[in-house]
Design a protein that fits this description.
The chain is elongated, with a radius of gyration of 22 Å. It starts with a helix and ends in a 22-residue tail after the last strand. Strand 16 and strand 17 form a beta hairpin. The protein is built from one helix and 17 strands. The relative contact order is 0.16. Among the domains are: 71 residues, SH3 type barrels (Roll), CATH 2.30.30; 111 residues, Glucose Permease (Domain IIA), CATH 2.70.70. It has 264 residues and is mainly β. Strands 8, 9, 10, 11, 12, 13, 14, 15, 16 and 17 form a ten-stranded antiparallel β-sheet that branches. It is 9% helix and 37% strand.
Length: 264
């Protein structure tokens, strides 16, 4: 009987150990729904960058449930459970500090932004770098329903503009304000947008590969100078949908920086 008891105890201990290992090894999910918890009851600010200096582009009510898709490390924030430098990207765009989200963990619960889950690459040739002149939510012109997730790159006229991801040309031609523009449809009403071009070299309905040239940069439409306006929009309405999640920088586009493209 004593031998049987020891065997039983050994099996139980082994099962508990295996369960503990399994729980500790649970990976971050592709997206997570979490609840906003601000002890003061105030709304939680959405910022255009993972930093306290980032522009406030909206807010979410205390107690509401939001969907986060990836994380980065940014400014440290004193939250309800301690200090954290984790910032989470909302599925609708923008950043929330992890300090006021009930995630059930002190660590990240979603993948790192710009990891292998990133679909897009910067829309100009590999090895080139152009300065970000406006980021998502920038007050000059990226603060409305059509532009709030867009990124502007300062560049001269004539730079080859490449498809950020494979898809089908949904639109190419003149768009009010956007000048000569192209939309690449990636499915589910999700299009990458390339505006203020000097020319396009594709036609509506064409299939394009990631890195395929679709046009050249310009200064058409409502501009103050030559640049590329790049965004992810709803194909049907052209309203802004999300910050482009790129292989190079994830969704962390900082004005003044010049990320190097890996496209092509």
């Amino acid at each position: 009987m004593s031998s049987l008891r020891r065997i039983t105890q050994t099996l139980v201990a082994a099962m508990v150990t295996c369960l503990a290992i399994a729980l500790s090894a649970v990976p971050a999910h592709a997206a997570a729904q979490v609840r906003v918890h601000v002890p003061s009851g105030l709304p939680l600010n959405i910022r255009n960058a993972p930093a306290l200096s980032g522009a406030v582009i909206g807010s979410v009510p205390n107690g509401s449930v939001v969907t986060i898709t990836c994380h980065v490390r940014g400014d440290a924030v004193q939250g309800f459970a301690g200090v954290t430098n984790i910032w989470n990207r909302l599925s609708s765009g923008g950043w929330l500090t992890d300090g006021f989200l009930e995630t059930g963990s002190n660590g990240p619960v979603v993948p790192l932004c710009g990891s292998s889950s990133a679909q897009f690459k910067l829309p100009f040739p590999a090895g080139r770098a152009y300065t970000i002149t406006q980021a998502a939510g920038s007050s000059f012109s990226h603060n409305d329903a059509y532009n709030r997730h867009a990124i502007d790159f300062g560049m001269p006229v004539g730079v080859p503009i490449l498809a950020s991801a494979a898809g089908t040309i949904r639109f190419e031609g003149w768009a009010t304000g956007g000048g000569i523009m192209a939309l690449v449809d990636h499915g589910n009403n999700r299009c990458s947008q390339y505006a203020h071009l000097s020319a396009t070299i594709i036609n509506t309905g064409d299939r394009v590969a990631q890195g395929q040239r679709i046009g050249t940069s310009g200064a058409t439409g409502n501009v103050t100078g030559p640049h590329l306006h790049w965004n992810i929009v709803n194909c049907d309405s052209h309203t802004s949908r999300e910050i482009p999640n790129s292989v190079e920088v994830g969704t962390n586009y900082v004005v003044g920086r010049a990320p190097v493209s890996q496209n092509g």
